[in-house]
Amino acid sequence: MTATDAHPRTPAQRPGPAGVFDVHTHFFPRISRAESRVLAGAGEPWLREAGDGTGTMMSGTDAYRPVSAELWEAGSRLAAMDRSGVAVQAVSSTPLLFGYAADPARAVDWCELVNQRILDFCGQAPDRLLPLCQVPLQDAAAAAAAVTRAKAAGHRGVHIGNHVGQRYLDDADLLAFLAHCADQDMPVLVHPWDMLGADRTARGYMLPWLVGMAAETQLSLLSLILSGGFERLPRSLRMCFCHGGGSFAYLLGRADNAWHRRDLVRADSPHPPSFYTDRFCVDSAVFDPRALRLLLDVMGTERVMLGSDFPFPLGEQEPGATIRACTGLTDADRAALLGGNARRFFGPTVPGAGAR
What we know:
This protein is of the alpha/beta class. The chain is built from 14 helices and 13 strands. It has helices spanning 3-6, 33-36, 74-84, 104-122, 140-153, 172-183, 198-201, 207-226, 229-232, 248-261, 263-266, 289-299, 321-325, 331-346, and strands at 20-27, 45-49, 54-59, 62-68, 86-93, 129-131, 158-161, 163-164, 167-168, 188-191, 239-241, 281-283, 304-305. Strand 8 and strand 9 form a beta hairpin. The two termini are 33 Å apart. Residues 1-17 have low confidence and may be disordered. Belongs to the metallo-dependent hydrolases superfamily. ACMSD family. Residues 22-347 form the Amidohydrolase-related domain. Its EC number is 4.1.1.45. It holds the Pfam family Amidohydro_2. Monomer.
């Protein structure tokens, strides 16, 4: 019996093809302490289950975060999706699993392990769970090869962190990797991680998440833009930046002003930052209808997709609530934000792709 068989749904509960599509959800598989040792001291993430539907994400011997079964158990996840009316989730690994600090050869093996667990998980409900692979991004050539293998195995996109050490996405090797993703027709979901300013945000209050995440994404986007990175990437590349693109939309006017007034800013970018907003998408995880209204004004309704950060407590607990509460939207706008845009982003053969 599969997890989906173990969790029957009545017709009233079963979302139809025009339902909500959440592009930003996470997964952490049942990985043992012994399996994690392939990373040889580079974080070594594993899952310690308590046996009562809760557990702890571990990093070596350190407890990283308490979690619940929705993170690793398909039946629990599907039940939560039914309760919130979510039809489809794009499923990506928890960033703790990236393994970017490991030796590249070990990271290749690690990503193969994690990616197979993602496929096994999503295979329990292929009409509702869309698998995204992770890659050993510290070695761009190995990462490109991993994308090719993952696509052949059934993954529908790529989930990456926004940087590897001091190398951001405008790095020449990482640009080559992104171009390969375009060649493979594999959309890329970019997630902030390993946040800057750790020495100044270590005082607590989850400041790395509250401040660092927004800054990381802003830094990634402006690095791509001002370096001329988008000029060197094919327009066929589909990228989505999580957490609403961080502080990018709010500070775009500042960036444009700097581009117009200082040659240092525009040295490698032939156009101001606002020119490039049609080169990427963002998710809707901004938690305030006023912030979402600004994001839509900057990005355009067609480039924003529902993202909840499920199942973590800092995510949107009622997926789509901010979109539904945002004023000035037509029914067609809300349908696009809640699902239509995601179906176009991931391609014509995703679950419910014919729905509009």
